[in-house]
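Hi, here's the filled form for the chain we discussed.

Project: internal
Contact: R.S.
Residues: 376
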Amino acid sequence: MIPRAVSDFVRDALQTGFRLVPWPTEPGLRALGNPGPLSPVLVTGNFDLTVRRVMRAMRGVDAWLVVAPSSGINVWCAASGGHLSTHQVITALKTSGVSQRVRHRRAILPQLAATGVIAREVERRAHWQVKFGPVYARDIPRYLAQHEKKSEDMRRVRFGLPERLEMAASWATPMALVAAIPSLLLRPAWTPALVVLVGVIALAVFTIYDRVAARRRRYLIAAAPLTAVAATALAGGGTAALITAALASAAAAAVLTYDYSGSTPIEGGSHFREARWHIKLDFDRCKGVYFCWQVCPEACFDQRPDIGKVEISRSDSCIRCGACVVQCPTDALYFEDGGGRRIEPETIRRFKLNLLGRRSVRVGYGQGAPASTDSG
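And the returned structure, exactly as it came back:
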């Protein structure tokens, strides 16, 4: 038991520190507890850390877990980037053998997969009904106990202290490694200080940066080298150490803040063309299906059962993930810029975001779209 706990801790630490690179695990079917033919079926991507977190969260609960191929990337990034799509989920449901283990055809996906997996297409092509469960794995047992009904807190993305520390570690680890390698070759004595410097800046960025007023990037890029130089001077560092501290801290702050908002779940990317687009509702097309309300990670929508519609009540909170557009069966939602140009739902479904924030990753949905688009 102790070696297993140590192994899990080491894997958690490595996969948290280097989560910016893929960590795949074997796709396929896992039995959680002692599931039977009526047990729920969960689906997730094959990012190893995610799979193990789901398995830990489900201790004491019987269920089937279908691990779909997502290139070893976490659900949010994989779905947004076209690595966890309708095709991957259908393939996993058909090839995992879960159909022979259960009597029902209901699958529960993570809510954050809604940007890439079209629920009604899974039902049409694989004859499996898809529901989007909670955002976080730890809420799945409560969700199941509530007869698969999500409370408000289950469908909201949170960016509390644990999540902030995890993101800080995910960025600080590779950046510290990049700083440490040349330092070990040229000035080994400086290595611990440079590693600490990178860690402190990453921690500051992910804990306080979004709370700073306008022009926050300028403030931090200016404050980081000034603080680093002051600390180096107090420690008795010479001219070379002062220059290195200034340059290293400015570079670290610049990298971490380049697209901070796009690295967090609380804002849309601010440095790409998608920043000018806003979610819009075609009121006449809306039929009150409420899929948008179910999958929006920022709770931008309110249900209006009195008129059989939804309304966009918190448009300023929209992070332009596109989940609502992807899932709307009546194409009532779309993106529009200030000049009246529209991005139609089919474009959002067909093209996903690449690493530069452009919607140019084709996922094979539909025909006849352009090769790329300026929507992202």
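Let me know if anything looks off before we file it.
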